[in-house]
Amino acid sequence: MTADSSQDALYRQALAAHGAELARCCAGYERDPALRQELQQELHLALWQSLATFRGDCSLRTWVYRVAHNVGARHVQQHAGKAPMLALDEIEHLPDDRLDPGHTERRLDLQRVLALVHRLALLDRELMLLYLEGLDAASIADITGLSARNVATKIHRIKALLARQLATPRSSP
């Protein structure tokens, strides 16, 4: 098998196993549909290119997430002036601006969570997106380079903040 066909095979394998996760990752980094589509294209290109150097030192899943979060972080930094990112303590007092009475309560809660996640500082956003994908602290630490204990502490703080925000009654339109 040639290097290109091996790279193509790895790319197909990565998409089959993690394509839905990549789409959700892009949604976590970008709210605007047009920019989200652009981010997805950048992500797929970067993933395909990166697989030429994949040696199997980590799992394919870890590799995919590293690429996804590097591309997502770069995207956020390039578009940082459009929507302010906030520290955890600053989010605590945000007004609720995501109301849509036509959706179910669960949908509203998901929208509220994503709206808060979109406003988090980049590292906190990355950690929460990985956590929401079901990764444990050790896996997230492997992807981000942080210690597992630091990851667990930060996620605990973010979850507590989100719980407090979701417990706050929404205002009427």
What does this structure look like?
Pfam families: Sigma70_r2, Sigma70_r4_2. Keywords: Sigma factor, Transcription, Transcription regulation. Belongs to the sigma-70 factor family. ECF subfamily. This is RNA polymerase sigma factor. The chain is mainly α and 173 residues long. It has 2 domains: 83 residues, Rna Polymerase Sigma Factor, Chain: A (Orthogonal Bundle); 87 residues, Orthogonal Bundle (Arc Repressor Mutant, subunit A), CATH 1.10.10. It contains 8 helices and no strands. The longest helix has 27 residues. The protein is globular, with a radius of gyration of 17 Å.
CATH classification, class level of the largest domain = Mainly Alpha
Question: Structural class per helix/strand content?
Answer: mainly alpha
Domain count: 2
The topology string of helices and strands comes to HHHHHHHH
Q: What is the average of the pLDDT values?
A: 81
CATH architecture of the largest domain: Orthogonal Bundle
The Cα radius of gyration reads 17 Å
N- to C-terminal separation? 60 Å
Entry summary:
By secondary structure, the chain is an all-alpha fold. It has two domains: 1-83, Rna Polymerase Sigma Factor, Chain: A, CATH 1.10.1740.10; 87-173, Orthogonal Bundle (Arc Repressor Mutant, subunit A), CATH 1.10.10. The chain is built from eight helices and no strands.
